[in-house]
Amino acid sequence: MSNRKTLHRKFRKLSVQERLQALFDAGYFDHETHQFWQDGGTVLQENAADRMIENVVGRFAFPQGIAVNFPLNDQIYQVPLVVEEPSVVAALSFAALLAEKNGGFKAAASSPILIGQVQLTGLDDPLAAEQKLRAAQESIARAAQQAMPNMVARGGGLRDISFHHHDGEHSGRAMLVVHLHIDTQDAMGANMVNSVCEAVAPLLETICGGEAVLKILSNLADEALARAEVTLPCSQLAAPGWSGEQVRDRIILASDLALADPYRATTHNKGIMNGVDALALATGNDWRSIEAAAHAYAARDGQYRALSHWTKTENGDLHGELTMPIKVGTVGGSLQTNPAVLANLKLLGISRAQELASLMAAVGLAQNFAALRALASNGIQQGHMTLHARSVALAANAPSEIFDEVVKQLVASGEIKIETAQQIIQQIQTGS
After folding, report:
1. pLDDT tens digits, one per residue of 207-235
2. How much is the mean pLDDT over the chain?
3. Which residue among 34, 181, 319, 384 is the active-site one?
4. Neighbours of 432 (CB within 10 A)
5. Which among 186, 223, 277, 286 is annotated as catalytic?
6. What is the pLDDT of residue 379?
7. Catalytic site includes residue 291
8. What residues does 183 pair with on adjacent strands?
9. Which residue in 341, 338, 344 sits closest to 49, CA to CA?
10. Considering Cα of 149, then 155, then 156, then 158, what sign does the dihedral take?
11. In whole angstroms, what separates CA 253 from the centre of its chain?
12. Which one from 8, 270, 319, 346 is the annotated catalytic residue?
C-alpha cells in the first residue's frame, strides 16, 4: 500500500465518476480496475445471484460509500461501507480526520479461532464420559486434522479441545459438549468447522457411549477478539458552544452510562455496529454472525454492557478502547462469487483476515466516537436532519442543478417531508 496516496478532503463534493478518477489518481485502481468500476462491474449479475440463494427474483441494491483516509496502524485505508443509513459514512470520515492528526487508530486481532460444538447426550455418567474423552484426545485431534487437510497444510487446524457440562432446562437431560478450537486462517471457516464436527462425532460416540445431537460451529467467536484504541486531545474535541474539555467529560459520562445501563448500552453498541456491519457487508462477511457474537460478548458477565469505554488520560486527553469478537474471512467461495467483494478487498489492499478484523474494530470505535461527540455537544439530530433532507429531496425528484438549494430550504423549514420538498422545488423553478 506504500504507493497509495491519501485522498483530497473535498472527495465528498465530487461526482461519482470524479471520485472513481480520484481513486485511480491516488493509486487505488489500475487502468483495468478503474474501467471495471466505471462500467458497473461490481454489480452482482442475475445468474450469479440465482446460484447464491433460492427462489431468486431480482437483486436488491444498497449504496456504497467510502470513508476516506482512515488511519490505522500507520497505514491509510479507503474504507468501503455498504449502508442505507445517512451519516454513517460522514461520521466515520470525520473521526478519521481527527484521528489522523493525532497518530491514528491502533488495533490488533488475535488468532482466528472458531469453535465447533458437538453435543453429547444419553450418558450414564457425564463426568466419567469426559475422562474417557480426555484420555483419547490424541485420537480425537488426529481425526479432526484428517477432516481438514487443506486447512492444516495452510498452517491452520485444531488448536485445543475443551469440555463443558449443561443440564437441559426442558428436556431434563444432562449434556456433555465438546468444543473443538480450530484456527481457520484467512477463511471465516463456518462450513469447514461444521464438517469437522460431523466427522469427529462418531468417534466421540464410540469413546464415551453417548449420542451426538448437535454438530455445529458457535458464532460466539470469543477466541477471535479484535481490539482497537485511539487517543484524542481536547483541542480536537471542541464543538460550537462547547469546549474540548466539556465534550471530553460528557463523552466519558455517556460511556459510563452505557457500561451501567443496558438500555443505553444497546444504542451505544448499535452505533459501533453501524460501522462494523457496513464494512462486513462491503467485504462479503456474515454481518449477522458478527452481530450475534458482539451482543453475546457484551453480556458475558450476566449484564449487557457497552463494547467500548472512554476515559481521561493523565494529561487530559480522551482515550477510547473497544474489544469485541470479529471472525471474518478474506478467502472462500462465498466471497469469490460476488465481484463487489473482490473489488472492495482490492481497494482496501487487504488479504489477511486478522488485518480486516483489526480494521473493523477500529471502524467500530471511530463510529462510536463520532456518535458520542455529537450526542455530548449539539445532539445527534442536527447532522441527521441534513442527511435526512437529502433523502427526502431525492424522493421528491429534485433536479440535480437545484438539489443542494432544496436541501438547504428543507432543513430551514423544519418540515422535512416530501410534500414540502415538492413545494420548494416548484417555488425555485417558478421563481415564486
Report:
1. 999 999 999 999 999 999 999 999 999 99
2. 93
3. 384
4. 6
5. 286
6. 61
7. no
8. 113, 157
9. 338
10. positive
11. 25
12. 270
